[in-house]
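Q: What would this chain look like folded?
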Amino acid sequence: MRRELGIARCGLACCLCSESEGCDGCDSGSCPDAATCEVRACSAAKGLSHCYECAEPCRRGILAKIKPRAFTEFARRFGEGRLLDCLARNEAAGVSYHREGVVGDYDDFDDLEELIAFIETGRKTKG
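A: My prediction, written as structure tokens:
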């Protein structure tokens, strides 16, 4: 885990991502999607560093997907530091952010609250 990369504006875990080797996060200047990212443009226009700082519910862009939406909601409720702590603990316990491509254990959910509970505990409550 590269904790110093933290969480992207949209909630994706840059700290765990293995897909963008040359990317150092949304605001690093090396983000390959910076010019086209709808979430980045919205949060920047609002003067926010992360979507979890915004009170408005949103499914814009990548936030239509459950994983970034759940990570964003977790950070809103408990803080980014706690989210990073849980992700580090889960990774050490074998929870995979990316198994093949961009799909991992956090993608096995359809229910937002179940995924938030999984982030917090590292254990699936169903199935």
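The radius of gyration is 14 Å.
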